[in-house]
Amino acid sequence: MPGRMNPVILQLGSFELRWYGMMYLAAFAVAYGLAAHRLNTEDRFEFNLEELQSLMAAMILGVLLGGRLGYVFFYDPVYYFHHPLEIILPFDRANGWRFVGITGMSFHGGLIGVILAAFLYTRKQRIPFLLAADLIVPCVPLGYTFGRLGNFINGELYGRITDSALGMIFSSAPGNRLRHPSQLYEAFFEGIILFIILWFLRKRVKVPGSMLALYLIGYGFFRFFIEYTRQPDAHLGFVLFHFSMGQVLCLGMILAGGALLAILCFREKKRSSEAASDELRTEKS
Predict the structure, then answer these.
(1) How many CA atoms lie within 13 A of 242 on its CB side?
(2) pLDDT averaged per 10 residues in sequence order, the chain, 285 residues
(3) Where does residue 15 rank: exposed (0-12), middle (13-18), buried (19+ CB within 10 A)?
(4) CA 70 to chain centre
(5) 11 pairs with which residues across the strands?
(6) What is the CA radius of gyration of the chain?
(7) Model pTM above 0.90
(8) For residue 245, which phi and psi values (nearest 5 degrees)?
(9) What does the DSSP 8-state code read for residue 190?
(10) How many other C-beta atoms can be found within 10 angstroms of the C-beta atom of residue 203?
C-alpha cells in the first residue's frame, strides 16, 4: 500500500468493506447518473430510464465476467488451466477455504464483456446498439477515475522505479524505491481527460456509433503511453519486444477503433449519397 493508506473501510469479523469495492460502485453510479442526465436533456435517444437501468445491469454483469475471464486468458492462462476452480471460487483452499474474494481482473476483458453484454441486450430489446453506445460511452471514462483510485489505495498496479519528483514508495512493491504512481496517471488521463474529450464531442459527432470508435482509440492511446510508467506483471514481463501485455492489447484497441470509425464513416457517406439520389429522383418525377 502507498504510505499508510488502509484499503479497508470497515471490518466486522471476517467481513471487510474495502475502498476498492466502493470505488467500483461509485464508478457505475457516476456512469448511470450521467447517462440518465443525457436521456432527460437530449431528445435523440429513443429509450427510457427503465431500459437504461436494465442495460446498465447487463453491462455490470458483462464487465465482471469479461474482466475475470480476460485476466485468466490474457494474463495467466497456464496457471488457471491447471487450477480451473480458482477462476470462479472466492476462497483460498490452502488455508481452510478462507474467503478472499476473486482477485485478478482485466480491463480489456471487461471491455469485451461489456460490449458483448450491451450488444446482446439491445438486440433482444430491439434498441439500436450504436445509439445505445453513443449514449453510454461518453459517460464511462469518468468512472475509471474511481476505479484507478481504488487501485492506488490498494497499492496495486504500481509504476516502475523513477527518480521523478512524482515518485512514491509503495510498500507492496519490492525494493522500497520511488515508483511512478501510474494509477493516478491513468485516473487523470484515461478518466478525466478522456471524459472531457468525449463529453465535448458527444453532440458534435453525427455519425452513429462513432463515440465507441473514438473511445477505443482514445483510451488505447492514453493507456499505451502510460504503460511505459507502469510495472509490467511479474509473471509476464514484456510479451512483444519491449511492449507489455497492456500495450499489446491497447494497440489492438486503437486498430479496432480506427477500423470501426472507417466503416461507420463509409456507411454514413453511402447512406447520405443514397438519400440524395432518392431525393433527386423524387424531384425529377
Answers:
(1) 4
(2) 63 71 88 94 88 94 92 86 77 63 81 96 94 95 90 88 92 89 96 96 92 97 96 81 92 97 92 73 68
(3) exposed
(4) 12
(5) 16
(6) 21
(7) no
(8) -60, -40
(9) I
(10) 11
